[in-house]
Design brief:
Elements (H helix, E strand, L loop, with lengths): L1 H10 L3 E2 L12 E8 L4 H18 L9 E8 L4 H12 L5 E3 L4 H14 L3 E2 L9 H16 L18 H12 L5 E4 L3 H13 L8 E4 L2 H8 L4 H6 L4 E5 L5 H14 L7 H22 L6 E3 L17 E3 L2 H9 L2 E4 L2 E4 L10 E8 L2 E9 L3 E3 L3 H4 L38 E6 L9 E2 L6 E2 L1 H11 L7 E6 L8 H9 L5 E2 L7 H4 L2 E3 L4 E3 L1 E8 L14 H22 L10 H14 L12 H30 L2 E2 L6 H6 L4 E4 L4 H8 L7 E4 L2 H10 L4 E5 H10 L3 E4 L6 E3 L2 E3 L3
Parallel strand pairs: 2-3, 2-4, 6-7, 7-8, 16-19, 16-20, 25-26, 25-27
Antiparallel strand pairs: 1-5, 8-13, 9-10, 11-12, 13-14, 14-15, 17-18, 20-30, 21-30, 22-29, 23-24, 23-27, 23-28
Length: about 725
């Protein structure tokens, strides 16, 4: 994560800056300082590595043109105050660069002094407990988590290393164990961090279900010190990070030298490689500075003259005259060191930082992947990915299998319901109508209904218990406002809402919905009327004009067939009266396919076939229309759907508490004076029957229930909105 990444960025910037003067003589020595806690693992490794780097620089006298690089060290001993004192002492002794300190609080103060004295420094961030850098780190981590809609649920702040006791740590761990989160990040010095894991193991917090992440301090422990069986047992399954250093001949050669350099006192870790490279960055910058004609010279700061009394004499602090030029040289660094390619961007940060991701297994660890700010998580080394286009797609973010605490490869859920937590407060609308969906039993006060049954069934499918309680919302005299019910989640009155809650746009802007568990949408319900039946009902399928045209065609077909057949067909011959009867009989008998005269001409047969097909269509249409007329109720012609309802001036009914009212006024621009609130299916029926409203607009599930009891109305047109019902929770969940 970016939080750990800063360690790499800052460690590569353990520098202070110089300038040049008009003199061209090279100094005999160039003084640099280092302010570290040399009792820490990183402090021990860095000291050995920096001394080795100084020795390598000075092994070639021509490199600095006869000048010798001299390193002096100051042990801050875990004390920010001592670190500041050490920095001030360096500024009294013509020191051109200061490597360190390990704690950002010290670095922050020293940076102000450095700016005033023209001895700028690039800070190093180290692992600590309760100080300014720790608080800043937590703020930065919280910001990054917020980008992914996560948050820090609890911050367990421990006393600094010299003061943190087992009792204090245990008390904090007990608090954590009672909470819901099972993802725990440990950011501290190694001594405190190992103590945290030891006590967590004793409290049975290193078992299945937990996710423990240690920042880079743990990787330095694994690389630089032997791990006892007890320590290894307490950190099984932990994930940690290590600054990535690509494989190279120079790096491997230095690793081979390390045992001799350290006399076997401590193992090498990446911070030693960075410390070594830092000395070489300074040496190269000083070399360029001297080659440019610069001279190491200092002068007193006039702004500090007379400041301080007694032994505190700030006027003795000297200013490095050519600091800006040396700073420029450092920022222009482009070299290959033990840690790989070294260069800085416009923000003075190292380019392309990367980390190894380690999983503690046994007495060691296995590497499960890498992280870089170029392509994110990967099982491929970053230096290979640099040759390709960056790819941060979710499918490309991969790591090898992790062995989690409890020796399991099953990914932990990362949370549980807290032992000291309260039940989830679930708001439920206190309905006075359509109680099939949500209602309260008068005798037992239990809440039940279709929506409640769906929720309970979903909860029962979970593999863990969910403690909750239903809380009714509403006065019980009328349906409550669902928009207001949803809003109460954002104010913390409810943790969730269960019921017949429509998923609409303005609600999704402030809360999260589950997937819809039932389809819904607004429809128009209008009254129906029955047409009076009579003995002439059989004529209704066709209009008079249609009847006349049909009769004319029967007559025409008879005439056409007679013309084509009477010359060659004896059945169409005879006296004129007989032929007239034959024409009429043949034409109308085709209606029932009952004609008995045979056609012998080709054209006559073609005409007859086509006409019989037309007759089939006519009779089928007639039969279907007559059946519909005799059996199906007909709608009142004035309401055909939402469009005709909008253009009319009729009153429209809606359900009290529904979003339909706002939709009709805000989206369809229907005057509010036309809207009539109705509270129950009985009121729907009465208003439609008496003509108080021309139609009712409501959601499909309510309408289906209404129509199952009342046959005097029917849905007209199509659904003009598409939505559904879902359960609601706060957006940050």
């Amino acid at each position: 994560m970016n939080l750990v990444l800063w360690v790499v960025v800052e460690l590569l910037a353990l520098l202070s800056i110089g300038g040049y003067s008009k003199e061209h003589t090279r100094p005999a020595v160039v003084n640099i300082g280092a302010a570290f806690t040399f009792g820490s693992i990183n402090g021990k490794v860095a000291k050995i590595a920096m001394n080795a780097a100084v020795e390598d620089v000075n092994s070639d006298p021509s490199f600095l043109g006869g000048s010798k690089l001299v390193l002096s060290t100051h042990d801050s001993n875990y004390s920010g105050f001592l670190g500041i004192i050490g920095g001030l002492q360096y500024m009294e002794t013509d020191t051109v660069a200061i490597i360190g300190p390990q704690v950002s609080g010290m670095a922050h103060i020293l940076s102000h002094l450095a700016n005033e004295l023209h001895v700028p420094m690039l800070e190093v961030v180290a692992i600590y407990t309760d100080d300014e850098q720790s608080r800043g780190t937590m703020i930065a981590l919280a910001n990054k988590l917020a980008e992914r809609r996560c948050k820090i649920s609890y911050k367990a702040v421990l006393s600094p290393e010299a003061f943190a006791t087992d009792s204090e740590i245990s008390n904090e761990l007990v608090k954590v164990s009672l909470m819901e989160s099972r993802v725990i990040i440990v950011h501290s010095y190694a001594v405190i961090g190992l103590k945290v894991f030891d006590l967590a193991h004793k409290l049975r917090m290193m078992e299945k279900g937990y996710v423990w992440i240690a920042t880079a301090w743990l990787s330095t422990v694994l690389d630089s010190t032997p791990v006892s069986g007890e320590v290894a047992k307490s950190i099984q399954g932990v994930l940690t990070f290590r600054p990535h250093t690509p494989d190279s001949k120079r790096r491997n050669a230095f690793i081979s030298r390390w045992n001799k350099l350290s006399n076997g006192s401590i193992g090498l870790n990446p911070y030693g490689l960075y410390a070594y490279d830092t000395v070489w960055i300074i040496a190269n910058a000083v070399k360029v500075f001297l080659d440019q004609g610069g001279t190491i010279s200092f002068s007193n700061n006039s702004n500090l003259n007379g400041v301080g009394e007694g032994n505190l004499n700030l006027g003795a602090l000297s200013t490095f005259d050519g600091g800006s030029q040396l700073l420029h040289n450092i920022l222009q660094t482009n070299m290959t060191g033990l840690t790989g390619q070294i260069a800085f961007d416009s923000d003075k940060s190292v380019i392309r930082p990367a980390f190894d991701i380690l999983n503690v297994v046994g007495k060691g660890y296995k590497q499960i992947g890498y992280w870089s700010n170029y392509s994110g998580l990967s099982v491929v080394p970053p230096e290979i990915l640099y040759t390709k286009a960056p790819n941060r797609s979710s499918s490309n973010q991969q790591l090898d299998h992790v062995v989690w605490p409890g020796q399991t490869t099953v990914k932990p859920r990362g949370w549980v319901f807290p032992y000291n937590g309260r039940n989830l407060r679930i708001g439920v609308p206190h309905r006075v109508s359509y109680k099939d969906f949500v209602s309260k039993s008068g005798s037992t006060n239990e809440i039940h209904g279709y929506c409640i049954d769906v929720f309970v069934a979903a909860v029962n499918l979970l593999s863990y218990a969910v403690p909750y309680e239903f809380i009714l919302y509403g006065d019980g005299h009328k349906n409550p406002s669902y928009t207001e019910l949803v809003r109460l989640i954002t104010s913390g009155v409810f943790d969730a809402v269960v019921g017949d809650i429509a998923i609409v746009t303005n609600r999704t802007k402030i809360v999260d919905f589950t997937q819809p568990y039932i389809e819904s949408g607004l429809v128009v319900v209008a009254p129906v009327r029955k047409l009076n039946s009579s003995s002439w009902a059989f004529l209704r399928p066709f209009t008079p004009l249609m009847w006349a045209i049909t009769a004319a065609f029967f007559l025409i077909i008879g005439v056409v067939v007679w013309i084509l057949e009477h010359r060659i067909n004896d059945e169409f011959r005879g006296p004129p009266k007989q032929q007239l009867v034959t024409i009429l009989w043949f034409g109308f008998s085709t209606m029932f396919f009952a004609h008995r005269e045979n056609t012998v001409s080709t054209l006559g047969r073609i005409v007859l076939i086509l006409w019989l097909f037309v007759v089939l269509i006519i009779t089928s249409s007639y039969t279907a229309s007559l059946t519909s007329i005799l059996t199906v109720q007909q709608l009142a012609p004035s309401i055909r759907g939402i469009d005709s309802l909008i253009t009319s001036n009729d009153h429209i009914g809606f359900q009290v508490g529904s979003f339909a009212e706002n939709y009709l006024t805000d989206e369809l621009n229907i005057a509010k004076s036309r809207l009539i609130p109705l509270g129950s299916p009985e009121e729907y029926a009465d208003a439609l029957r008496r003509g108080r409203v021309a139609a009712v607009v409501d959601e499909r599930p309510y309408v289906d229930v209404f129509l199952s009891k009342y046959c005097m109305a029917q849905v007209v047109g199509q659904e003009f909105t598409k939505s559904g019902w879902g359960f609601v929770s706060i957006s940050e969940f």
